[in-house]
Amino acid sequence: MKTLKYFKQTFVIVLLFSMMTISSACSNIDEGYNRIPSNFYPTQVKESTGVKLVGIGVELDPHFFSQNLTRPEDGSKAEDWNIVKERVKKMGVQNFRVMVQPHWWEPLNDNDDPNVADMSKFTFDSQEMQSLYKVLELIQENNGEVTLVLWGCPVNMDLIAGTPTGKHFLCDSRPNAPWVCGTDKYEEFAENFSVLVKYLIETKGFTCVKAVTPFNEPDSHTPNYGRTMWQGEPDSHPDQYAPMVKALDAKFKAMGLRDKVEFNLSDNTDGSPNYLKSCAEALQAETNLLNTHTYKFGYTTSNADIVNWEKNNVTLSSGKKHFVGEFGSNQTSGSSRQLDIDKYERGVLLTRIAINLLNGGAAGVSYWSLIDQYYSRNGSYSEMQQLGLWKYVKKAYEPDPEIYNAIKEDYEVRPHYYAYSLLTRFIKKNAEVFPLDLNENLVAGTAILNENNKWVYIFANGSEHNKPVEIINDKSQANGEYEVYKYVEGSLPTGDNLIQSTETINIKDKTSLSIARSSVLILVQK
């Protein structure tokens, strides 16, 4: 009996100790994930960057109807386009980059006089153009704004009509050209692009076309060919880009278009800051906006590195606004893949990059790209662009069993769809940016004042610890009710439903909050 009684007492003591240990562990977990620590880091909403935003955008290139539906082996259908339309509307995207290529509407030179366009020779009814119209219709229905990006001159035309084929007449004569090359026929190039823009705006009524960019990444360098369009390197080659833009500007003015569209120029990669500088200096009179693409920032990149990179771009832009025309992560694998594309953490990273670019003075950012799609109906699986906010039809991924087996449905959204949608929904054109200093390398924050005088606070925590902060804002109309939105792993919506507010808080002068590790937190004033 004594032995049994001792055993019972010992068992009870051990049990109580175990329960205390579990309780303590649970308490620590709660503190780590839910409770707000007392050591808030104070940050004051101070001065804005002084830049009115162009907007938060995406690239939506017009290949769904021309290059995807023409691949019967994939099984996509015309009515699938409704999925794209519905999601764009829900996301509230206001800014779009849209690719065009000159052979879609002028496969052969209309005549030898660039000052007299023979409109009967332009193929505005081609299937490639019909696909473009679908994209522009979608954007116009949603009150979006379009930058048309003429990517370059095709070396091997591959029209759905079948003819003509071969090198486009605008191509320059340099050997070893990549799939799209530069031009030395500036007047003909100006005629080609201006005729398109005039037709789209004045004949088709696409007033959503607000800007043009001649040549995508013209600083791109191909061995034994050189840069697509040389600029700012007189020892290597005379300038091509600036003379081309000046010819384009003169043509747009002559056709009464220059007051209808802005010139968004440079469009250089992140490896050529001097290209941006040269464009800004040589084209002061022609430039409305300059832009650069970047895929150099990753999960360990500090906030300061991103901010300083953008500040340098702003300096090089010589007083013109600077926009980030493409961005993604640095986990690149060729031009069509990024290794983190399906990871939850990518949503946090993209938000943190965007915050820092805006804090550095960018006039906006555009994500590459909205959807997975083929750019050529005859392309191999490795050529399919797989950097979208959502995927293409499941069957198209059969060549990669690992990806294919993980897909549950056609047009499945990726996690960063939910995160990036928070930016497109709540940061609007003409907003002002007020950078927040959180004293962290991987936790970024910014305060946005939209044109309607409503505030939005955006935080991205790329670290492995929670960040307690106290936000102080004594500026006009900052007090009031705020809806709270959270991008948190394990709590994302189902399907393509957007993140909804989890609570409403009242802010008067300041507020204390904890930004959970590996998460995005947004406060939106009601």
Automatic annotation (TrEMBL):
Protein name, per record: Glycoside hydrolase family 5 domain-containing protein
Domain of life: Bacteria
InterPro entries documented for this protein: 6GAL/EXGAL (IPR039743), GH (IPR017853)
Gene3D superfamilies for the chain: Glycosidases
Ribonucleoprotein recorded as keyword: no
Key words of the record: Signal
Entry annotated with the keyword Translocase: no
Taxon lineage: Bacteria, Pseudomonadati, Bacteroidota, Bacteroidia, Bacteroidales
A GO molecular-function descriptor: hydrolase activity, hydrolyzing O-glycosyl compounds
Residues of the signal peptide: 1-27
Coiled-coil blocks: none
